[in-house]
Specification:
This protein is mainly α. The protein has one domain (3-291). Helices cover 56% and strands 4% of the residues. It has a two-stranded antiparallel ribbon. The radius of gyration is 21 Å and the shape is globular.
Length: 342
């Protein structure tokens, strides 16, 4: 594919897609039903449908029944960990290998033209972003993902929380499934914004932001505390009259869906003139500029709080103006403190 038909590169080779990033046309005034209907398939395809399919297959064929999960034992816990680990390496690994090892599409549609493996960086273990990310992703990422899933399955199996039934509560469970991405957007914005509080950023979230030029392995490169809050989103299913399948769907959409925002390419080519839109640009801008796009735009939190970057020069100017005001406030506070001490 010719990426110049879809965007442009600057003098440094950084690629920017054409058009303007806009939040989903859900919370807009006045309402625009036609625009919403044109956008609606993107809510399901390709990712949310894919994650629901993987979750359903996982629930049906790779998850022990309640007669097993009602007792905590290493055999079934090991099974859950093993299949989560396999999902991590297969889903992340296939995309990483194709785009970053084989470089099948070279840097076509790649926002940052450079590949992390081409340059060692001492901020990472062994000087390698990929190795560092895999160690963190497996060491605490898959482990905490598994721990929260185990707790959820065990609680449902022991009736510590009520479990809805697909035969008796189909509409309710369908509504939960439909709203999982919306809930994720709200929850993720809240914890992500909190992690950018200077103290939390310094000791926790900076680990993730070491990957300024992210690749799929970067998706779960986090501090263990961030892993806990990230996957802790799925604990909501213990309080909303839900079902283990939807908890698994939520967890897998977190674990596997994280790749979508960190793939580093705007399209994954599937043919000479065909490709899958990743919708990764909004989150790429967050890794590039740090203080924009704390969410992905499904709900326009960043618009409402003034941190939305639409990928344009005007977006750059708005970001710089906000940064200058922030620095002015910080300097004024510093001068005030110094004056008080004098």
């Amino acid at each position: 594919m010719d990426d110049s038909k879809y965007g442009k590169r600057d003098k440094r080779g950084h690629w920017t897609p054409d058009g303007v990033l806009t939040p989903a046309p859900i919370f807009v005034l006045p309402p625009n039903p036609l625009k919403f209907l044109r956008w609606l398939p993107n809510y399901f395809l390709p990712w949310n449908v894919f994650f629901m399919l993987t979750a359903t297959l996982t629930w049906l064929f790779l998850t022990p029944g309640t007669e097993t999960t009602n007792t905590l034992s290493w055999d079934w816990i090991a099974l859950i960990f093993a299949r989560n680990l396999a999902a991590f390496f297969v889903f992340y690994g296939v995309i990483e290998y194709r785009l970053y090892r084989q470089r099948k599409q070279e840097n076509r549609f790649k926002y940052n033209p450079n590949f992390p493996a081409d340059k060692k960086n001492t901020v990472f273990m062994f000087g390698s972003q990929a190795i560092d990310s895999v160690i963190r992703g497996v060491g605490t990422g898959v482990t905490i993902w598994t721990a929260i899933e185990v707790i959820t399955l065990w609680a449902f199996a022991n009736n510590y929380v009520p479990m809805a039934s697909f035969s008796e509560n189909p509409v309710w469970l369908a509504m939960i499934a439909l709203l999982v991405p919306m809930f994720h957007e709200a929850y993720f914005f809240a914890i992500h914004r909190a992690l950018h509080i200077p103290l939390f950023y310094k000791w926790i979230h900076s680990v993730h932001h070491n990957s300024v030029n992210p690749s799929p392995w970067s998706s779960l490169s986090m501090h263990p505390i961030e892993h806990f809050f990230f996957f802790g989103e799925a604990l909501i299913h213990l309080v909303i009259f839900s079902h283990p399948l939807l908890a698994i769907y939520n967890l897998q959409s977190l674990a596997l869906g994280a790749v979508v925002g960190h793939v580093g390419f705007d399209k994954i080519e599937t043919g000479d003139e065909k490709g899958i839109d990743t919708h990764a640009y909004a989150h790429y801008l967050h890794h590039k500029y740090f203080e924009v796009n704390y969410a992905d735009g499904l709900i326009p939190f960043d618009k409402w709080f003034g941190t939305w970057h639409d990928g344009t020069k005007e977006g750059d100017a708005t970001m710089q103006a906000r940064w200058q005001k922030k620095m002015q406030r910080a300097n004024a506070g510093k001068e005030s403190n110094e004056g008080g001490r004098a």
